[in-house]
Structures are given as C-alpha cells and as structure tokens.
Amino acid sequence: MTNDGGYGVRDGEVAVDLPDKFDASLYFIGRIRTPWKRREDCPRNARESEAVCTIELDPRFTEGLKGVESCTHLVVLYWMDKARRDLVLQKPRHYNEQRGTFALRSPARPNPIAMSVVRLLGIEGGKLSVVGVACLNDTPLLDLKPYFASVDAVSDAVVGWHAALKR
Amino acid sequence: MTNDGGYGVRDGEVAVDLPDKFDASLYFIGRIRTPWKRREDCPRNARESEAVCTIELDPRFTEGLKGVESCTHLVVLYWMDKARRDLVLQKPRHYNEQRGTFALRSPARPNPIAMSVVRLLGIEGGKLSVVGVACLNDTPLLDLKPYFASVDAVSDAVVGWHAALKR
To answer: Is A61 at the interface with chain B, CB within 8 A?
Structure first.
C-alpha cells in the first residue's frame, strides 16, 4: 500500500512504493509571493500571465544576489509540496491520455521541484520582482540561477506528444 | 562558526550560518553515468562536450518514462553534494572577481541542485542516452522534465557580468 497523502489516484494513474528513506535534504531559502491563493487560480502555463510576482529571499542570503541585477532572466527552482510523490503514470484532467510523470511538468513527482524561467524586472534588498512564475502564493524557494541562453535556450526543442495535440 | 565541510574559504569568499534544520527531503531516483571521474576533468560548460552520457533511472520509476521518447530535449535536475552550502559570495578561480552565489552556476549553493538542458538520443528500458550534462560519474539524479521551448527557451537572455567579460 502506498500512502496517498489525502489525494486519490484517478482512473488510469499508477502509484509505486517510494524508497524507505530520503537521501538528501533542502533548506527553504525564501518565499514566492504571487496573486494566486488556490491551485485552480494559477495560470497553467507561466507565459499566460504577465502578473508581477515577488521573490523574497531569506535575509541571511541577500549578499548572494551580487551580480544578479545584471541578468535579464533567471532560473527559479521551488518546492511544490502539495502533491503526492509516488505517481509514475498520470492522467491530467486537461489531457485525456495517460502519460509518464517524467513526460509532464505536473507537481506530482518523486522530487516536487519546479523549474521556471523568469524575466527579472528589478531587485530591492532581498526582494526580486519577476514575471513568469505560476505557483501558489508563499511557495517555498529553493534556488536562483543566472539563465545562460548559450546552454539553456533551445528554440527548436519539441515535446512530441504535446505537439501532436495541437495538430 | 560555520562548518566548512573540509573545503576552505578562499580570499574574497563569504560564508553565512545556515539554518538550524532542513525543511524538506529528496530521493535519489537514479544515477548519471559520465566519462568524468574528477571535478577538474568535467567540461566547464555542458556545450563544450559532445560526450554521450547515460541516465540510469531506478527501476521502480521506469513507467514514468512513458511519452518521454517523444521529447527532443529534457530538463535534468541532479545533486552536487561535494561542495559547501554556506557561501554567499564566491570568487571562482577562472574569474578574478567576487560574485554572489545566485549570479553563478557554481555547485556551492544552499541547495546544490544543478539544472542542465540535454538532448535526448534514445531510451532503452530505464536508461536514457543524452548529450549535455557536465557532471561527475555517478552523480545522483533528482528529476527529469520535458523541455518546452515555449516557456523554457529565451534566446536573447543576457547575463550582463558574463557578457562584459567577453568584450
């Protein structure tokens, strides 16, 4: 029996037994302030909204922002701890087909780390104004990184199953 | 006193006290097999090498790959646990200037999660052949995600401090 954490498994979804113990641990280094208080209010796709969100870094790490102001875009990693972690096959409501967890950006995954590329508008002290996250208000922050177009941008990348939906 | 984990702080580097306790935990869901056994052998930039690396997923998660074969590129998250986690200002050997941790892709950061965009060559069972990681052999895997050019590719993004070096 796997623990469903209060969330049921939908028809067509498959859960596995997770390992007995964890292998590493994380610090929440800040919070992301957004206008969205319920999951159903969040934009499905970060590019759907131009809402300005605020990333508030724990003051102990403020010095770590030196040089970040010169970046136009950042990689933001954050923690989506509201979903179950044991699903390998999922059937999101808006797609009527079963797909593997690693073919989806769903928050339900063994390590619920989300990655968003955001546009940086400005920094004041430990607060960054950004456009491009689509998470719930108060979501825990894990990391900020400079976005390098030379290694991170692949304009012609294709997600085949998704492209097929639009045909 | 902060624990330096056996690594010293170089001139121009600044460490802070980390929080007393962790906030969340991770599973290692596989390993990344690469040709590099020592840190100094790893390519500094993942695009410098065309070496084919293998991502070996823990067999319990193999079903989670359904649909991944249709992706040309993936986001790979992995764990770089060899570096200290308390540095906020760093002076990498190859840049002679002090910069904030969040303006660098250095493995030394509060949560040492690395992000690489890789090209997927093929999948056999739970093994993925990819080009584009630059980590040590046996590095722990945290997550795989489909790379969506629509939200993840920003070709004109600029890291100002880095661009200035090349002028």
So the answer is: yes
> Which residue from B minimizes the CA distance to A23?
B27
Q: Quick: pLDDT tens for B61-119.
A: 999 999 999 999 999 999 998 889 999 999 977 778 899 999 999 999 999 999 999 99
pTM: 0.93
Q: Which of B19, B73, B103 sits opposite A71 (nearest CB)?
A: B103
Chain B residue nearest residue A16, CA to CA = B60
Q: What is the DSSP letter of B19?
A: P
* Residue in this structure with the two tokens 């037994």, named with its chain if needed: A17
**Is the CB of A157 less than 8 angstroms away from the CB of B61?**
no
B104 contacts in chain A (CB < 8 Å): 67, 145-146
CB A107, CB A82: distance < 8 Å? yes
- Residues A32-81 have pLDDT tens digits of 999 999 888 888 777 778 899 999 999 999 999 999 999 999 999 999 98
